[in-house]
Write a structure and sequence with these properties.
CATH class: Alpha Beta
Strand order of the largest sheet: 1-4-5-3-2
Order of helices and strands: EHHEEEEHHH
Number of helices: 5
Radius of gyration: 14 Å
Shape: globular
Strand content: 15-25%
Number of domains: 1
CATH topology: Mannitol-specific EII, Chain A
Distance between the termini: 9 Å
Largest sheet: 5 strands, mixed
Length: 155
């Protein structure tokens, strides 16, 4: 996977939101302002999350991996939000159940093949509760971006 999906300016600590819609809206609007996604993206990603939840119960620390159709994307990137407090997301494998999510990996992919590769990388990384714990406790932006770049996205 090419490293161009990683952008340290799209890694956020102490990200504040009250619900998953707010997380997705705030993140996707940042992407929109940077020209990474098309105007429809913020609405479409919330809609997709509602219809196809991405909350993953992976242990003590849960994650969500929201994404939308590539037709709403200008440039492939990954946005990462470490939430100040967990937010409820519906589970991917049981949409009727909600789980508290602490880390959100928003996959912004312009081509389907890259989407699968990126999903595999993220899914591989989130199996490590130790890595997720490190991501939650690190407050230094540079240290956090290095950790993500080297252990999740690939550096």
């Amino acid at each position: 996977m090419e490293n161009n999906y990683f952008d340290s300016n799209l890694v956020f600590t102490d990200f504040e939101a009250d619900n998953y819609e707010e997380v997705l809206s705030k993140l996707s609007n940042i992407l929109l302002k940077k020209g990474i996604v098309k105007e429809e993206y913020p609405e479409k990603i919330v809609e997709r999350e509602h219809n196809y939840p991405t909350g993953l119960e992976v242990g003590e620390i849960n994650v969500a991996v929201p994404h939308s159709d590539h037709i709403y994307v200008n440039e492939g990137k990954v946005a990462v939000a470490i939430l100040k407090k967990p937010v409820m997301f519906n589970k991917m494998d049981d949409p009727s159940e909600e789980i508290p999510v602490s880390i959100v990996f928003m996959l912004v992919v312009a081509e389907p093949k890259a989407h699968l590769e990126l999903l595999q990388k993220v899914f591989g990384a989130i199996q490590s509760q130790e890595l997720l714990k490190q991501m939650l406790v690190i407050k230094d932006h540079q240290e956090l971006t290095n950790l993500i770049k080297n252990n999740v996205i690939g550096g």
